[in-house]
Amino acid sequence: MDNVQMIDTFKAFKDFLCNFARTHSPTRLMSSENTYSLSREHCNLKYSDILPQNVEGYPATKEFLMKVVDILLDFIKSSNDRNAKVLEFHHPHDMTKLLDLDVPDTGVTLQQLLLDCSTTLKYQVKTGHPHFFNQLSCGLDLVSMAGEWLTATANTNMFTYEIAPVFILMEHVLLTKMREIIGWNGGDSILAPGGSISNLYAFLAARHKMFPTYKERGLSAIDGQLVMFTSDQCHYSVRSCAAVCGLGTDNCVMVPSDERGRIIPSKLEELILERKAKGHIPFFVNATAGTTVIGAFDPINELADICQKYGCWLHVDAAWGGGLLLSRKYRHPRLSGVERADSVTWNPHKLMGALLQCSTIHFKEDGLLISCNQMSAEYLFMTDKLYDIKYDTGDKVIQCGRHNDIFKLWLQWRAKGTDGFEKHMDRLMELSEYMVRRIKQMPDKYYLILEPEMVNVCFWYLPTRVRNMPHGPEREKILGEICPILKARMMQAGTLMVGYQPDDRRPNFFRNIISSAAVTEQDVDFLLAELDRLGHDL
Ligand code: ABU
After folding, report:
1. 408 Cα to the center of ligand 1, angstroms
2. What stretches of 386-497 show up as alpha helix (H) in DSSP?
3. What percent of the chain has pLDDT over 70?
4. Alpha carbon of 292 to ligand 1 centroid (Å)
């Protein structure tokens, strides 16, 4: 055998091994329907054979990443396929057996990483599927997703202009626009990691405003017991502020709400007076614009009057309902008076469909965030920099590293325009109204719990055996017991996801959310028919 023959034989053997490895992967992540195979040339490569470790590795890098994109595109396609399942449910102990979650001592090949990516998405719930109605954040906005891809590739931190110039300016422009939509001229804002932390920022700024030396002196700066007020329907993060900021949850007063889930202003005033009589210091009132379960809106103007009278800070938690600020049709009366608030939480990753996560907190008064939270770390926030250091926004927050959550929202807003967002909000509300109409057309099968103010439609499904029972506590008890069983059937069938929960007035009931741009009237019809198919015999 001459040299050329030997090389050919060696190459043929290498190809055979490569093919064998591709089709006989020993790991359990190998999926039989996998089509994400790297070329023979690259199938045995590892991370060290691509950029940045191998400067000659661009062709392999490109092929690897293009295959990752193929996997992502297939997931997107299947998320939009109404014949595909929303999820493939397995109990944790079974799921563990389907996966190889080990992180090995010796790294695996790029080919194996592709299989890992593919398998990961195979078992992921498709939150962008038109039949996923389970959370406040449903859907997959593809422009926003493209933005997130770019964000991941840019891989920068948002603490200084120095390393994120374009993104910092985008934050400035977009947050100013959002404040204008709230109704303010000026002020300040920041993107925070979630609505709960946004609410915490509001609390911190309010306390700083009232007790400017708290930052240095701590508890000794406050001569008395601070008290905050919120409705009994508020998001639990408001109460959590009291726990983490030293008030104690006993000093987060839960004000009763009416039968529609809205705070009762006269009760608020009574409770403020009660605490004042004890020598306490009422300082913060939270109004919820869009409660998590029912989607109720507290009457902001009435609360603003009370806050004005007693010198309290008014925060509006519009994490959920904030998107309706963009709709001329639905903004009023729900968010009327929001411009009178001192701070507003507004999560574009909820109703507006920006990718998770994208949460904003806005302040009417400029300068509070920085004076409250600034620590002036000299290794990041030098004062003698080349540029105007007011753009080093990282010193306004209590965290150090800050994820880039702006680009996906900015790109989405560029694509839709403010008009497009308004149409989107109106469409979601109209679809929810459609669902309510359909439920009312089937009183034998569905019981609407209350007329929704938002896209939260709360209802019970009525299986055949209860259809002739009069509605009352006895029937509600049965309906409450049915919810988890019907939800389990949904998940096992994989065709639909709708959430359920109890509240302080009733046992378990379903809460359906329409916040995905993918949903149509036909999907609402499917949802109602599917619940009946899965649950009529319960
Ligand atoms: N408050 C966070 C969102 C909760 C939900 O998706 O139901």
Report:
1. 20
2. 407-441, 473-493
3. 94
4. 6
- pTM value is 0.93
Give the whole-angstrom CA distance, residue 356 versus residue 48.
31
Band (413; pLDDT cuts 50, 70, 90)? very high
Other Cβ atoms closer than 10 A to 61: 17
* Atom number, ligand 1, closest to the C-alpha of residue 136: 6
Whole-angstrom distance, CA of residue 494 vs CA of residue 511: 18
**353: region left, alpha or beta (phi > 0 left; psi from -120 to 50 alpha):** left
Atom from ligand 1 closest to the CA of residue 135: 6
CA dihedral 57, 63, 66, 70 (to 10 degrees): -150
| 32: confidence class by pLDDT, cuts 50, 70, 90 | very low
Ligand 1 proximity of 136 Cβ (cutoff 6 Å): yes
Beta bridge partners of 253: 229
From the CB of 240, is ligand 1 less than 6 Å away? no
Range with the lowest mean pLDDT among 1-10, 161-170, 213-222, 524-533? 1-10
Domain annotation for the chain: domains and CATH numbers:
3-126 (no CATH), 186-384 (3.40.640.10), 416-535 (3.90.1150.170)
For 120-134, letters b (16+ CB in 10 Å) and e give eebeebbbbbbbbbb
Q: Is 44 in the pocket of ligand 1 (CB under 6 A)?
A: no
Rounded to whole angstroms, how far apart are CA atoms 519 and 353?
12
- Tell me how far the alpha carbon of residue 183 lies from the centroid of ligand 1, in angstroms: 26
